[in-house]
């Protein structure tokens, strides 16, 4: 059974497992299950009230971005990934991932409910701030290809659109843009602020690290099983998507931290973004582009998810993940 397909009656029997990495990631995701109210934010509320306006802006800006984009990821999975896959073990994982995205959305709602943040203003930012809206439009364009236009997964172009959508959501949105925000969110804990909020973010990151592994594994499996996608021009297109995404994130971070906050400014965060992009490029088999060091060594455990693989290696097997070993 190939991993791509739209047969309703295909993939109704779980075993024997065809893609062990997907089954392992599902079991790890189930083991990681958590709920936001398990963390009390009372101490953090006291921290928030005494923070500077620039610091409060950064937290609000992050909530403005994370909250709707967790639900946007779910649309990408529901419309752009789930319908085009045969393997039941992948469906199991995707179902759990979609629940996790909903749980993350509720986690950020919990923060908005706890801190004195103007919810309407926070919600408005994702369409009124040009750098934030541009990122969202970039992602929405890929969903449109999967929903408003007919996608024939049996054609080369249809399969390319499937991969483009995965790169846009799993690699760029979850693997670079989200991680950039995670670093800013966790930077407060480095100064002994918002420690419980930091724990909440740790749990989100633990989920997202598995989402990223699943997405990259899926991309590599599709490429391995479809030789017509092993095209240098297509590889260049994918690489350029990632580089374009870095430029968009750099503009966004200048709006996130217009004046900087103690120990953190846009240049620092953007070096981290470039470092992340190089890791994602390498995980897809490309050479690094920026060759910068990680300015946030304390985030190192969250950065590197997979062994190096080749984006167009037809017989690649190194992407299989031992999920138990990746528990953060």
Automatic annotation (TrEMBL):
EC number(s) given by UniProt: 1.17.4.1
UniProt cofactor note: Binds 2 iron ions per subunit.
Required cofactor(s): Fe cation
Keywords in alphabetical order: Deoxyribonucleotide synthesis, Iron, Membrane, Metal-binding, Oxidoreductase, Transmembrane, Transmembrane helix
One annotated GO molecular function: ribonucleoside-diphosphate reductase activity, thioredoxin disulfide as acceptor
Gene3D superfamilies (alphabetical): Ribonucleotide Reductase, subunit A
Any one Gene Ontology BP term: deoxyribonucleotide biosynthetic process
Pfam families documented for this protein: Ribonuc_red_sm
Residues binding Fe cation 2: 174, 208, 211
InterPro entries linked: Ferritin-like_SF (IPR009078), RNR-like (IPR012348), RNR_small (IPR033909), RNR_small_fam (IPR000358)
PANTHER family: RIBONUCLEOSIDE-DIPHOSPHATE REDUCTASE SMALL CHAIN, RIBONUCLEOSIDE-DIPHOSPHATE REDUCTASE SUBUNIT M2
Family, as annotated: Belongs to the ribonucleoside diphosphate reductase small chain family.
Its job: Provides the precursors necessary for DNA synthesis. Catalyzes the biosynthesis of deoxyribonucleotides from the corresponding ribonucleotides.
Protein's name according to its UniProt entry: Ribonucleoside-diphosphate reductase subunit beta
């Amino acid at each position: 059974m190939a991993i791509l397909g739209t047969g309703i009656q295909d993939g109704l029997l779980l075993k024997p497992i065809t893609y062990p990495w997907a089954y392992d990631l599902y079991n790890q995701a189930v083991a990681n299950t958590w709920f936001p109210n398990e963390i009390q934010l009372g101490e953090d509320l006291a921290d928030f009230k005494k923070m500077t306006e620039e610091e409060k802006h950064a937290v609000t800006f992050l909530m403005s971005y994370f909250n709707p984009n967790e639900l946007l990821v779910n649309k990408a999975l529901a419309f752009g990934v789930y319908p085009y896959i045969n393997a039941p073990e992948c469906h199991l994982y995707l179902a759990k991932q979609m629940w996790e995205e909903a749980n993350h959305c509720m986690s950020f709602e919990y923060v908005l409910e706890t801190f004195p943040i103007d919810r309407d203003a926070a919600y408005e930012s994702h369409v009124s701030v040009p750098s934030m809206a541009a990122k969202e439009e970039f992602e929405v364009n890929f969903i449109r290809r999967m929903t408003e236009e007919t996608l024939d997964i049996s054609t080369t172009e249809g399969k390319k659109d499937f991969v483009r959508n995965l790169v846009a959501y799993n690699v760029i949105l979850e693997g670079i843009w989200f991680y950039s925000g995670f670093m800013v969110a966790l930077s407060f804990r480095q100064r002994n602020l918002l420690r419980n909020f930091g724990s909440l973010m740790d749990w989100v990151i633990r989920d997202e690290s598995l989402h990223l592994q699943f997405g990259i594994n899926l991309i590599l499996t599709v490429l391995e099983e479809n030789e017509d996608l092993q095209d240098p021009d297509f590889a260049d297109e994918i690489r350029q998507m990632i580089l374009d995404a870095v430029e968009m994130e750099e503009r966004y971070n200048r709006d996130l931290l217009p004046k900087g906050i103690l120990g953190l400014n846009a240049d620092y965060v953007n070096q981290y973004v470039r470092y992340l992009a190089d890791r994602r490029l390498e995980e897809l088999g490309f050479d690094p582009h920026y060759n910068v060091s990680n300015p946030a060594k304390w985030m190192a455990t969250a950065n590197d998810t997979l062994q190096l693989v080749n984006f167009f290696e037809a017989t690649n097997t190194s992407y299989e993940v031992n999920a138990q070993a990746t528990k953060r």
